[in-house]
Amino acid sequence: MTTPRTVLITGGAGGIGQGIARAFLAEGERVILADRDPDAVASAADALGADALTFDITDPAAVAAAFASLAAAGTAVDVLVNNAGILSVHGAVTELAPEAYRSILEVNVIGTFAVTQAFAHHRIAAGGGGSVVNISSIGGRQPTPGMGAYESSKAAVDSVTRWAAIELAPHGIRVNAVAPGPVLTPMLEMGMPEGSPARQAWASRIPLGDLAKVTDIAPAVVFLAGSGAAHITGVSLAVDGGQLLT
């Protein structure tokens, strides 16, 4: 019988984080949801039957302390899913304030790097092995006017993925990414219900005809984190309904 792995998912209180958690729990894994909102992550973890952990990925000291507390409790994290990120900064290249641009880089790039670095130290101390799956975006490869701050941050996540993959390979740590197109989280689905003009406009860009569901994203994460992907590292897997083909 295979020993369950421990999977840490940042941004775990959000819709995609919870969807990924459900997929790992269905595989019999132990899941720790991490988020900066203690009440939201505790509620999500309780509803799913997962554990909860509170830290802000933009605070490297807090990230390191969280991994130290897990190690002190005898918990070895086997899989890290860097799901936390923000999509709240929009603006044209001629209008966006540098401070706003810096804020999204701080979360999406520096935060992803900080948690990956802490996980790498954690795994190396445990003798190596383990897997990282970053949540990127096809926006890092296909620009949309007004979304360049977010999209360039995700291009950087893909680069961090390749960087970490080549340097951590000698320790047996694999690092990959899943790059979704637009995903119908509960919040997005409320704002763009089926049949709405906004939903139809997005869907018209996608050869398979609609935006991804959270349940379309989670299996790709589970695959890249698992033994079936044992010889895959440094890859950013698009899950976009073919949008990059257009």
From TrEMBL:
Record-linked CDD domains: SDR_c
InterPro entries associated with the record: KR_dom, NAD(P)-bd_dom_sf, SDR_fam
Keyword NAD carried by entry: yes
Keywords, comma-separated and alphabetical: NAD, Oxidoreductase
Domain Ketoreductase: 5-181
Pfam families per record: adh_short_C2
Protein family (similarity comment): Belongs to the short-chain dehydrogenases/reductases (SDR) family.
Protein name: SDR family oxidoreductase
The species this protein was found in: Leucobacter iarius
Lineage of source species: Bacteria, Bacillati, Actinomycetota, Actinomycetes, Micrococcales
